[in-house]
């Protein structure tokens, strides 16, 4: 099986990170897991280090301190430290179902994709969250028919070659760095949604309001689709602003 490097940027993720790391145990392929922490003030680092013994043999888990805080900077640093040529970027509030990694890698390599993502659902019963995630998946599929990859940063898979040719994630962008990356990567080769479903929390919706966050996402994406550039100003849901 193709070895996979998983890069996970963290900032105060002691509650969610254990769910992700536990879901990665027992994968049927070699994993190089790189947790890149930005000086968390909670027990994120200690929690991550407790899982190091669970990944042995051909797999391993490393907990690194980011030289610069910021989700793009942390992803880029993690990629620079990754051991394998196939990269998977996951947010800390993701849960990976059993055997999903094997299916993701097999599909990605068989289709010789440049970049890929997955359909996402809330981990708990959440009608509003499911509706928003469903609309997002529909939008992604429509844009893929146009040859454009609008992928969220919660799950992004690419090759190291594509990552380096794109120049990594744009650290100057305050929002939409994930879409910016996937659009550029998609122009270098094929892009698609992988045939698995990952679970991603709806914590920001619950904290800041479903409509408020969804409307901010909609405005950002619409500006991107119509070539209006990044919206000025900070967003409620910037990296690290969550419960």
* CATH structural architecture: Alpha-Beta Complex
Counted by DSSP, the helix tally is 9
In the CATH hierarchy, the third-tier topology is known as Spore Coat Polysaccharide Biosynthesis Protein SpsA, Chain A
The CATH class name reads Alpha Beta
- Into which percent range does the helicity of residues fall? 25-40%
* General shape: globular
How far apart are the termini? 37 Å
| Number of domain units | 1
Number of strands: 8
The mean pLDDT is 92
CATH superfamily: Spore Coat Polysaccharide Biosynthesis Protein SpsA, Chain A
Radius of gyration: 17 Å
Q: Tell me about the largest β-sheet.
A: 8 strands, mixed
Provide the fold topology.
Layout: E1 4-10, H1 17-24, E2 31-37, H2 44-50, E3 60-65, H3 71-81, E4 86-90, E5 94-95, H4 100-110, E6 113-121, H5 127-145, E7 155-159, H6 160-166, H7 177-186, E8 190-200, H8 203-208, H9 210-225
List keywords for this structure.
8 strands, Spore Coat Polysaccharide Biosynthesis Protein SpsA, Chain A, 21% strand, 243 residues, alpha/beta, 8-stranded mixed sheet
């Amino acid at each position: 099986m193709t070895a996979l490097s998983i890069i996970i940027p963290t900032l105060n993720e002691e509650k969610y990170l254990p769910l992700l790391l536990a879901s990665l145990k027992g994968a049927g392929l070699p994993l190089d897991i790189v947790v890149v922490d930005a000086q968390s003030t909670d027990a994120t680092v200690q929690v991550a280090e407790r899982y190091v013994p669970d990944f042995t043999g051909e797999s391993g888990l490393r907990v690194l301190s980011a030289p610069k805080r910021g989700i793009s900077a942390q992803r880029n640093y993690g990629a620079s430290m990754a051991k394998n040529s196939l990269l998977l970027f996951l947010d800390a509030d993701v849960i990976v179902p059993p055997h999903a990694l094997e299916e993701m890698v097999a599909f990605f390599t068989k289709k010789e994709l440049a970049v890929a993502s997955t359909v996402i659902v809330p981990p708990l019963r959440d009608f509003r969250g499911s509706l928003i995630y469903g609309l997002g998946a529909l939008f992604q599929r429509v844009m893929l028919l146009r040859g454009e990859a609008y992928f969220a940063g919660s799950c992004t898979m690419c090759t190291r070659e594509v990552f380096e040719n794109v120049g990594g994630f744009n650290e100057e962008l305050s929002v939409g760095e994930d879409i910016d990356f996937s659009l550029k990567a998609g122009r270098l080769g094929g892009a698609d949604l992988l045939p698995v479903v990952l679970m991603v929390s709806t914590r920001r919706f619950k904290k800041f309001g479903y409509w408020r966050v969804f409307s901010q996402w909609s405005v950002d994406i619409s500006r991107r689709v119509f070539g209006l550039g990044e919206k000025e100003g900070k967003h409620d849901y910037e990296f690290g602003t969550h419960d």
